[in-house]
Design brief:
Shape: elongated
Structural class: alpha/beta
Number of helices: 10
Radius of gyration: 24 Å
Largest sheet: 6 strands, mixed
Strand content: 25-35%
Low-confidence stretches: none
Mean pLDDT: 89
Order of helices and strands: EEEHEEEHHHEHEHEEHEHEEHEH
Distance between the termini: 35 Å
């Protein structure tokens, strides 16, 4: 169980600030690192991996500094966004070379285990230069897994991967998280992140914009009305009563049944809704938010 801690970390290149005063803690499980292109995601991953020195602040892995500490490389598996440059090697040669660099007791066996996990054993004898984009992503992941690290850092792992391979990668990341590994992957593809990682860290223009469960983040956006769909045993009666509540901005009856309710004060609405339903003798069948999706949260954070 490994934790990565950023404490007021900044990184700049000359006059360009890539990461600005970022503090976050990444623990076991799967975390999505979200942000538009140029937001600083790759820089954050490089800082976590110990490949970049922070210009200010500190990066620690279970209390040990990440920078100039080669011991952390035993705990970290890194899947970079950039393409594998060793196209003349076979997949097996590439993964086994990493096993040997780690000084593993049986690098051949470790290589085969890692290739099997990512389902690349059948293609392992082919040169990497002949692989598809998805195959190259998987062989990079095998190389990162070969020493059985407790931390996995993946930079845009779904980029350019076909749907079948994407589903396989998503299932692998979910598995690694349930095993207790600390998994962090960067992405701007919101649909995949929403399926794999409920916990997100959002960076915008090098700054840390939000952290946590994206539904909880949405509910903290008090300057933006929340929207809910409510299904009841008597939609019209409840709609008429809700109009009079100060916490409710608007109510619309849906054609297919149910109400769309726009709420200005979530706390007051959460108290008022069951009270009104009880007083009217109306049964609440379903109450669900319509704008707690990751896409909704992300669009708000990027535009604000």
């Amino acid at each position: 169980m490994t934790t990565i801690t950023f404490d007021k970390v900044s990184r700049w290149y000359g006059n360009v600030v890539a990461v600005n005063d970022v503090s976050m803690e990444i623990g076991p499980g799967v975390t999505g690192l979200l942000g538009p292109n140029g937001a600083g995601k790759s820089t954050i991953i490089a800082l976590m991996a110990g490949f970049l020195a922070p210009s200010a602040g500190t990066v620690h892995l279970d209390g040990a500094p990440a920078w100039r500490n080669t011991e952390i490389f035993r705990q970290i598996g890194l899947v970079p966004e950039r393409e594998v440059a060793f196209g003349y090697l076979t997949g097996r040669q590439f993964v086994q070379a990493n096993a040997e660099l780690h000084g593993l007791a049986d690098p051949g066996a470790a290589c085969e285990r890692a290739l099997d996990v990512v389902e690349m054993s059948d293609a392992a004898a082919r040169r990497i230069g002949t692989y598809s984009k998805g195959m190259r992503q998987r062989v990079k992941l095998a190389s990162a897994l070969v020493h059985d690290p407790g931390v996995l850092l993946l930079d845009e792992p779904f980029n350019g991967v076909d749907p079948r391979q994407r589903m396989h990668l998503m299932s692998l990341l979910t598995l690694f998280g349930t095993e207790g590994r600390t998994v962090l992957f960067s992405s701007h593809i919101l649909e995949e992140v929403e399926q794999v990682a409920r916990h997100v860290e959002v960076v915008v223009s090098g700054r840390h914009a939000a952290s946590g469960d994206f539904g909880a983040i949405r509910r903290l956006m008090t300057d933006r009305p929340n929207r809910y769909v409510v299904h009841t045993s008597d939609d019209r009666a409840l709609a008429a009563a809700l109009i009079g509540e100060q916490s409710v901005v608007g109510v619309v009856l849906r054609r297919g049944g149910g109400l769309e309710v726009e709420v200005g004060d979530f706390g007051s609405f959460a108290v008022a809704l069951p009270r009104l339903a009880r007083d009217l003798g109306v049964r609440l069948i379903e109450v669900s938010p319509t704008d707690e999706s990751l896409e909704s949260v992300f669009a708000y954070l990027v535009s604000s």
